[in-house]
Amino acid sequence: MRKNLDGTGPEVTGRRAHRTRREILRIDGVVAVLISFFCYCALEGTCGTWAATYLTLGRGIDAGTAAGWASLFFIGITAGRAVSGFVSMKVREHNMIRLGQALIAAGLIAVVAQGTDALLAPGLVCLGVGCAPIYPSIIHATPARFGEDVALELTGMQMAFANIGSLVMSPLFGVIAQSIDVRLYPVYLAALLAVMVLAAERLNRVMRRKHLAAGR
């Protein structure tokens, strides 16, 4: 037997060692990746669900146009996933995630631009394209980041956090929109993006430290 890269326990050669969820949560970086995944799926779900409502009630766009523009977010995701599959052959997962986060930020800036509605449609496309590489990159990087022995269990935990993020945070924005103001839509998305970036960069620091330790 030998120690895993995370240094938390023995790796059993020839078969996958079982870890409990509590043991997996103690692995450095796991909480960060779960928070990052939660925030990403919350952002994607909220962005797609409430875009048309925000455009109609928050920006005064007629309902037909708003629905058409909102669909551009999903077109952006679809096109972005197709393109990112090729880009990922040259770019590592953590940089694909950073690229996606930067495009989401750019899309949010376009959406909140005051004095013109001309940037709303491109902004929604940019949001979709930015979301495209994040989900598959997080999943694909799991075995390399945390080891094959916990990849299956950890992927299941990530899926659980993804579903919770989508199912809880999108309806929560509906409550906020109804009780406060639907114009908080980009602010809400920006807050989710900020937490996601902080968690993802925390994970990147953990991974760099582990690789440096393994290299010694």
Please describe what this structure looks like:
A two-stranded antiparallel ribbon has the order 1-2. It has helices spanning 21-25, 30-58, 63-87, 93-112, 120-131, 134-146, 148-179, 185-215, and strands at residues 2-3, 10-11. Helix content is 77%, strand content 2%. With 216 residues, the protein is mostly helical. The radius of gyration is 19 Å and the shape is elongated. It has a single domain, classed as MFS general substrate transporter like domains (Growth Hormone, Chain: A), CATH 1.20.1250.20.
What attributes does this structure have?
two-stranded antiparallel sheet; single chain; 8 helices; Growth Hormone, Chain: A; 216 residues; disordered N terminus; mainly alpha
Secondary-structure blueprint of this entry?
Elements lengths: L1 E2 L6 E2 L9 H5 L4 H29 L4 H25 L5 H20 L7 H12 L2 H13 L1 H32 L5 H31 L1
Antiparallel strand pairs: 1-2
